[in-house]
Amino acid sequence: MTRQDHQNLPFMKMHGLGNDFVVLDARARPVTVSPALALALADRHMGVGFDQLAVIEPPRGNGDAHLVFLNADGSASAACGNATRCIARHLMDETGRDALVLTTDRGTLLARDAGHGLTSVNMGAPQLTWDEIPLAREMDTLELPIEGAPTATGMGNPHCTFFVDDVSAIDLATRGPLVEHDPLYPQRTNVQFAQVIGPDHLRMRVWERGTGITLASGSSSCATAVAAARRGLSGRTVTIELDGGTIHIDWREDGVWMTGPTAHVFDGVLTARWLEQVG
Q1: DSSP state, 5?
Q2: Count: domains in the chain
Q3: Which of 7, 11, 14, 18 is nearest to 221 (CA)?
Q4: Which end of the chain has the lower number of beta carbons within 10 A, N or C?
């Protein structure tokens, strides 16, 4: 934080299916977020606690707002699907509009009110080639040379999806970090274990890069849906059951649409003294 930021700083706590976020609104008051601040805020005992930190910045180009994301370890992420949906819902409630254009380091994302309390975001076209994801070297992204033959997908951040017979039997706390740091992924990776429940119905558990086990992940849901369709395990429209609830993914010609509920849980204020201690 810069010196001018050492004053009380408002924040919002939101979640999408238990995938939770601290959101800072920097549209009226510039906020500089350091990795140290992100780490301190992420601590669920000595900070606030979150899976990702999101910052709403003034619009760029034709967008209505620009979004920046950091993981719980302070590293940057170009995409965070559930946070994008949560912020889109907040901005739609704020403006009375039912559609928005948001910009991120991933690109321009369209958001809309899906009715019945649900919010949809188009996460853009998936990245399917090794250099886009990225992987360390050229290879077939449909089945990687990793035990379990997972599929690699990029959604603005890298993903590695395993299809298994029983996701409940997976030791996610052990396998997740091993795959996250596999040498095939130079930028590390998000890790998903998915099980086919029925036609166009999947069950999934998530290890998020830079965060750990999460109850849900929007970009991981998109990547898993794309991987399942590519492998012929489902169609391009699927329902995914996560530990935190249900999300719907539709891989269309214009991108991967993600639809689900959001929650704005509470508003709070970070005190100037705590911010000064963080530095």
Answers
A1: G
A2: 2
A3: 18
A4: C
Instruction: For residue 212, tell me if it sits in a domain.
Output: yes
Instruction: Please state whether the predicted TM-score (pTM) of the whole model is above 0.85.
Output: yes
In a domain, 80, yes or no: yes
67 assigned to some structural domain: yes
Of how many residues is the chain composed?
279
Q: Do residues 201 and 231 touch, judged by C-beta distance below 8 A?
A: no
List pLDDT tens digits, range 182-198: 999 999 999 999 999 99
Element (H, E) at 220: helix 218-230
Q: Which two tokens stand for residue 105?
A: 């380091």
The residue segments making up the domain with residue 220 are: 151-253
Which token pair is 182? 């596999």
For residue 37 the two structure tokens come to 């601040």
Burial class (CB in 10 A: 0-12, 13-18, 19+), 98: exposed
On whether both 115 and 193 belong to a single domain, the answer is no
Query: pLDDT tens, 169-185?
Result: 999 999 999 999 999 99
DSSP state at residue 150? -
236 DSSP 8-state letter: S
**CA 85, 39, 57: angle at the middle one, nearest 5?**
40
Same domain membership, residue 101 and residue 177: no
